[in-house]
Amino acid sequence: MKIGEITQNASGKLHPLTLVQAKIGEIFTGMGFTIADGPEIETEFYNFDALNIPEHHPARDMWDTFWLKPLNLRKLLRTHTSNVQIRYMEKNKPPIKIIAPGKVYRHEATDATHEAQFYQLECLVVGTDVSLANLKWTLETFFEKFFGKKTTIRFRPSFFPFVEPGLETDMSCFKCSGMGCSICKNTGWIEMGGSGMVHPKVLLSVGIDSKKYRGFAFGYGIDRLAMLKYGIEDVRLFYQGDLRLVSQF
Ligand SMILES: [Zn+2]
């Protein structure tokens, strides 16, 4: 790219990840959700312990963690936005309906679908009458507004320490409507991320009566949502500061 080209297109553009987060915020606040926030430098308690992932639990290996020095302080770069669940529930009583979009960090090698830093969308709903049906409706409504196409949701059993049952969520392909295409690798389904019903131990860790209240939660990659929406094939493009990417939006 020549300098002249940059000057001609010098009017500001929003980064696709910024655009997508704005859209997500608009959709969920329209559905009555509050947008919550939390720190990226976090303690072991909020990132792991309170989420039913105690020290030495093998599930901790699911997250390759950046620990901060001095190590004895047990501080880290948060590996997920689930820390916001705990911080929000400590300060607010049910009913709770929040999303928490934000940056997370994983100590792992990068490739076209993995970055050491990326954005996650956390969602938490807690109330007296919350079920998987509410989760399904919330996801289908969100995806329809986000991708501009009606889709259906499929749950597959999975394991995450902070939910029980834990579920992988698939969305019927918004591009081919299940007929099979390159986006869904001819399966008709797109894997979206983890979800489930909030584990009673997580509610207990913040003093919420798990006999009275139930909740659902999900954590999806915002980068992945943006890649699907805009047809971007390499997540690393988001973080290279290349104006040729940003100028397309
Ligand atoms: Zn498809």
Count of structural domains: 1
- Straight-line N-to-C gap: 17 Å
Tell me the number of helical segments per DSSP (H or I, 4 or more residues long): 8
CATH superfamily caption: Bira Bifunctional Protein, Domain 2
Q: Strand order, main sheet: write it out.
A: 1-4-5-9-8-7-6
Q: What would the principal axes of the Cα set say about the shape? A: globular
The main pleated sheet reads as:
7 strands, mixed
Question: In the CATH scheme, what's the topology name?
Answer: BirA Bifunctional Protein, domain 2
CATH architecture: 2-Layer Sandwich
Amount of helix? 25-40%
| SSE class | alpha+beta
Provide the succession of SSEs. Answer: HHEEHEHEEHEEEHEHH
Mean pLDDT: 93
Q: What is the number of E strands?
A: 9
Beta-strand proportion: 25-35%
> Compute the gyration radius: what is it?
19 Å
Folded structure, characterized:
The protein is 28% helix and 25% strand. It has helices at residues 3-8, 16-30, 44-47, 83-91, 132-147, 200-205, 222-230, 243-246; strands spanning 34-35, 41-43, 75-77, 96-105, 117-127, 153-158, 163-172, 189-198, 214-221. The strands form two sheets. The protein has a seven-stranded mixed sheet, sandwiched between helices. A two-stranded antiparallel ribbon has the order 2-3. The chain has a single domain (3-244), classed as BirA Bifunctional Protein, domain 2, CATH 3.30.930. With 249 residues, it is an alpha+beta fold. The protein is built from eight helices and nine strands. The structure holds zinc ion.
